[in-house]
Write a structure and sequence with these properties.
CATH topology of the largest domain: Four Helix Bundle (Hemerythrin (Met), subunit A)
CATH superfamily of the largest domain: GntR ligand-binding domain-like
Number of helices: 9
CATH class of the largest domain: Mainly Alpha
Number of strands: 3
Largest sheet: 3 strands, antiparallel
Structural class: mainly alpha
Amino acid sequence: MAEIAEPLNANSLLQGDRPNLTEQVYEQLIDILIRGELQPGDVIVERKMAERLNASRTPVREALGRLEAEGLVYKQPSRGVTVSPFSTEAFVELLNVRQLLEAEAARLAAGRIPQEKMDAIRAALQDLGKQAKPSLSDIWDVDDMLHGAVADAAGNTLLAGMIRDLRRRTHVFNAYRNPISPKFGVEENTSLLDAIASGDQQRAHDAMAEHIESVRVAIIDRLSGSR
Protein backbone atom coordinates (compact mmCIF):
# COMPACT_ATOMS: atom_id res chain seq x y z
CA MET A 1 0.00 0.00 0.00
CA ALA A 2 1.20 3.53 -0.70
CA GLU A 3 2.09 5.36 2.50
CA ILE A 4 1.39 8.99 3.30
CA ALA A 5 4.57 11.02 3.24
CA GLU A 6 5.79 11.83 6.73
CA PRO A 7 7.63 15.06 7.62
CA LEU A 8 11.39 14.79 7.60
CA ASN A 9 13.07 13.90 10.87
CA ALA A 10 14.39 17.09 12.44
CA ASN A 11 17.59 15.30 13.48
CA SER A 12 18.41 14.61 9.85
CA LEU A 13 18.38 18.34 9.18
CA LEU A 14 21.40 18.74 11.44
CA GLN A 15 23.54 16.32 9.48
CA GLY A 16 24.20 18.67 6.58
CA ASP A 17 23.64 15.93 4.01
CA ARG A 18 21.96 18.16 1.43
CA PRO A 19 21.86 15.66 -1.46
CA ASN A 20 20.18 13.12 0.82
CA LEU A 21 17.70 15.70 2.13
CA THR A 22 16.93 16.86 -1.39
CA GLU A 23 16.24 13.26 -2.41
CA GLN A 24 13.93 12.78 0.58
CA VAL A 25 12.01 15.96 -0.23
CA TYR A 26 11.84 14.97 -3.89
CA GLU A 27 10.36 11.56 -3.02
CA GLN A 28 7.81 13.18 -0.70
CA LEU A 29 6.78 15.68 -3.38
CA ILE A 30 6.36 12.80 -5.84
CA ASP A 31 4.15 11.01 -3.29
CA ILE A 32 2.04 14.15 -2.88
CA LEU A 33 1.59 14.37 -6.66
CA ILE A 34 0.77 10.67 -6.98
CA ARG A 35 -1.87 10.93 -4.25
CA GLY A 36 -3.47 13.77 -6.19
CA GLU A 37 -3.07 16.26 -3.35
CA LEU A 38 -1.74 18.76 -5.89
CA GLN A 39 -3.46 19.14 -9.24
CA PRO A 40 -2.34 20.76 -12.51
CA GLY A 41 -2.40 24.52 -12.10
CA ASP A 42 -1.87 24.42 -8.34
CA VAL A 43 0.88 26.72 -7.09
CA ILE A 44 3.52 25.25 -4.77
CA VAL A 45 4.63 27.86 -2.25
CA GLU A 46 8.19 27.00 -1.30
CA ARG A 47 7.93 28.31 2.27
CA LYS A 48 4.67 26.50 3.01
CA MET A 49 5.92 23.25 1.51
CA ALA A 50 9.09 23.48 3.59
CA GLU A 51 6.96 23.88 6.71
CA ARG A 52 4.74 20.99 5.71
CA LEU A 53 7.72 18.66 5.22
CA ASN A 54 9.64 20.01 8.21
CA ALA A 55 12.55 20.84 5.93
CA SER A 56 14.54 23.95 5.12
CA ARG A 57 13.76 25.83 1.94
CA THR A 58 17.02 24.86 0.21
CA PRO A 59 16.27 21.13 -0.31
CA VAL A 60 12.68 22.02 -1.24
CA ARG A 61 13.96 24.47 -3.86
CA GLU A 62 16.41 21.88 -5.20
CA ALA A 63 13.74 19.16 -5.30
CA LEU A 64 11.37 21.50 -7.15
CA GLY A 65 14.17 22.18 -9.61
CA ARG A 66 14.42 18.46 -10.27
CA LEU A 67 10.66 18.21 -10.78
CA GLU A 68 10.87 21.14 -13.19
CA ALA A 69 13.61 19.39 -15.18
CA GLU A 70 11.32 16.35 -15.41
CA GLY A 71 8.43 18.49 -16.63
CA LEU A 72 6.20 17.87 -13.61
CA VAL A 73 6.21 21.52 -12.52
CA TYR A 74 7.10 24.81 -14.20
CA LYS A 75 7.90 28.35 -13.10
CA GLN A 76 5.68 31.32 -13.82
CA PRO A 77 7.12 34.82 -13.36
CA SER A 78 4.17 36.12 -11.38
CA ARG A 79 3.00 32.94 -9.63
CA GLY A 80 6.05 30.84 -8.84
CA VAL A 81 6.24 27.06 -9.19
CA THR A 82 3.09 25.53 -10.67
CA VAL A 83 2.06 21.91 -11.21
CA SER A 84 2.24 21.14 -14.93
CA PRO A 85 -0.67 19.94 -17.05
CA PHE A 86 -0.13 16.48 -18.48
CA SER A 87 -1.59 15.84 -21.92
CA THR A 88 -2.50 12.47 -23.37
CA GLU A 89 0.05 13.13 -26.12
CA ALA A 90 2.81 13.57 -23.54
CA PHE A 91 1.73 10.35 -21.86
CA VAL A 92 1.91 8.44 -25.15
CA GLU A 93 5.44 9.75 -25.67
CA LEU A 94 6.35 8.64 -22.15
CA LEU A 95 5.05 5.12 -22.77
CA ASN A 96 6.88 4.92 -26.09
CA VAL A 97 10.17 5.66 -24.33
CA ARG A 98 9.32 3.25 -21.53
CA GLN A 99 8.67 0.55 -24.10
CA LEU A 100 12.12 1.00 -25.62
CA LEU A 101 13.96 1.12 -22.30
CA GLU A 102 12.05 -1.59 -20.45
CA ALA A 103 12.16 -4.02 -23.37
CA GLU A 104 15.94 -3.65 -23.40
CA ALA A 105 16.04 -4.04 -19.61
CA ALA A 106 14.01 -7.25 -19.91
CA ARG A 107 16.45 -8.57 -22.52
CA LEU A 108 19.39 -7.89 -20.23
CA ALA A 109 17.56 -9.27 -17.19
CA ALA A 110 16.55 -12.56 -18.83
CA GLY A 111 17.46 -15.40 -16.49
CA ARG A 112 19.13 -13.05 -14.00
CA ILE A 113 16.41 -12.36 -11.41
CA PRO A 114 17.11 -14.44 -8.26
CA GLN A 115 14.64 -17.29 -7.71
CA GLU A 116 13.69 -15.96 -4.28
CA LYS A 117 12.69 -12.65 -5.87
CA MET A 118 10.79 -14.42 -8.64
CA ASP A 119 8.84 -16.44 -6.07
CA ALA A 120 7.96 -13.28 -4.14
CA ILE A 121 6.68 -11.57 -7.29
CA ARG A 122 4.61 -14.61 -8.27
CA ALA A 123 3.07 -14.73 -4.79
CA ALA A 124 2.24 -11.01 -4.95
CA LEU A 125 0.62 -11.48 -8.37
CA GLN A 126 -1.47 -14.37 -7.08
CA ASP A 127 -2.59 -12.39 -4.02
CA LEU A 128 -3.56 -9.45 -6.22
CA GLY A 129 -5.51 -11.74 -8.52
CA LYS A 130 -7.63 -12.91 -5.59
CA GLN A 131 -8.84 -9.37 -4.86
CA ALA A 132 -12.18 -8.48 -6.43
CA LYS A 133 -11.36 -4.77 -6.66
CA PRO A 134 -7.72 -4.07 -5.84
CA SER A 135 -6.89 -0.45 -5.10
CA LEU A 136 -4.70 1.60 -7.41
CA SER A 137 -1.94 1.64 -4.79
CA ASP A 138 -2.09 -2.18 -4.47
CA ILE A 139 -1.74 -2.51 -8.24
CA TRP A 140 1.15 -0.06 -8.36
CA ASP A 141 2.95 -1.83 -5.52
CA VAL A 142 2.94 -5.17 -7.36
CA ASP A 143 3.63 -3.58 -10.73
CA ASP A 144 6.59 -1.65 -9.30
CA MET A 145 7.85 -4.83 -7.65
CA LEU A 146 7.94 -6.65 -10.99
CA HIS A 147 9.30 -3.84 -13.14
CA GLY A 148 11.77 -2.79 -10.45
CA ALA A 149 13.17 -6.32 -10.27
CA VAL A 150 13.62 -6.37 -14.04
CA ALA A 151 15.33 -2.97 -14.05
CA ASP A 152 17.70 -3.99 -11.25
CA ALA A 153 18.55 -7.34 -12.84
CA ALA A 154 19.49 -5.62 -16.10
CA GLY A 155 22.76 -4.64 -14.43
CA ASN A 156 22.77 -1.05 -15.67
CA THR A 157 22.20 1.53 -12.94
CA LEU A 158 21.63 4.39 -15.38
CA LEU A 159 19.00 2.40 -17.27
CA ALA A 160 17.32 1.38 -14.01
CA GLY A 161 17.22 4.98 -12.82
CA MET A 162 15.69 6.21 -16.08
CA ILE A 163 13.02 3.51 -15.93
CA ARG A 164 12.10 4.39 -12.35
CA ASP A 165 11.85 8.09 -13.21
CA LEU A 166 9.54 7.35 -16.14
CA ARG A 167 7.41 5.04 -14.03
CA ARG A 168 7.02 7.81 -11.43
CA ARG A 169 5.74 10.09 -14.16
CA THR A 170 3.31 7.37 -15.22
CA HIS A 171 1.95 7.22 -11.68
CA VAL A 172 1.59 11.00 -11.53
CA PHE A 173 -0.27 11.01 -14.84
CA ASN A 174 -2.62 8.31 -13.58
CA ALA A 175 -3.33 10.36 -10.47
CA TYR A 176 -4.25 13.37 -12.63
CA ARG A 177 -6.08 11.85 -15.55
CA ASN A 178 -6.89 8.23 -14.79
CA PRO A 179 -7.66 7.84 -11.06
CA ILE A 180 -9.88 4.78 -11.53
CA SER A 181 -8.13 1.50 -10.74
CA PRO A 182 -7.33 -0.22 -14.04
CA LYS A 183 -7.92 -3.90 -14.66
CA PHE A 184 -4.69 -5.64 -13.76
CA GLY A 185 -3.72 -8.52 -16.03
CA VAL A 186 -2.38 -11.13 -13.63
CA GLU A 187 -2.04 -13.74 -16.38
CA GLU A 188 -0.29 -11.27 -18.68
CA ASN A 189 2.17 -10.26 -15.98
CA THR A 190 2.77 -13.89 -15.04
CA SER A 191 3.53 -14.66 -18.69
CA LEU A 192 5.94 -11.73 -18.74
CA LEU A 193 7.66 -13.11 -15.66
CA ASP A 194 7.86 -16.56 -17.28
CA ALA A 195 9.50 -15.07 -20.37
CA ILE A 196 12.14 -13.33 -18.28
CA ALA A 197 12.72 -16.42 -16.14
CA SER A 198 13.28 -18.53 -19.27
CA GLY A 199 16.62 -16.86 -19.94
CA ASP A 200 15.65 -16.32 -23.58
CA GLN A 201 16.66 -12.72 -24.21
CA GLN A 202 14.57 -12.19 -27.34
CA ARG A 203 11.49 -13.72 -25.73
CA ALA A 204 11.92 -11.50 -22.67
CA HIS A 205 12.40 -8.41 -24.84
CA ASP A 206 9.32 -9.11 -26.94
CA ALA A 207 7.15 -9.97 -23.92
CA MET A 208 7.97 -6.67 -22.22
CA ALA A 209 7.41 -4.67 -25.41
CA GLU A 210 4.02 -6.32 -25.92
CA HIS A 211 3.11 -5.79 -22.26
CA ILE A 212 3.74 -2.05 -22.33
CA GLU A 213 1.97 -1.75 -25.68
CA SER A 214 -1.13 -3.37 -24.18
CA VAL A 215 -0.95 -0.95 -21.24
CA ARG A 216 -0.64 1.99 -23.62
CA VAL A 217 -3.63 0.91 -25.71
CA ALA A 218 -5.80 0.17 -22.65
CA ILE A 219 -5.13 3.53 -21.01
CA ILE A 220 -5.62 5.54 -24.20
CA ASP A 221 -8.89 3.69 -24.87
CA ARG A 222 -10.07 4.43 -21.34
CA LEU A 223 -9.14 8.11 -21.61
CA SER A 224 -10.90 8.43 -24.96
CA GLY A 225 -14.03 6.86 -23.51
CA SER A 226 -14.12 4.00 -25.98
CA ARG A 227 -14.38 1.53 -23.11
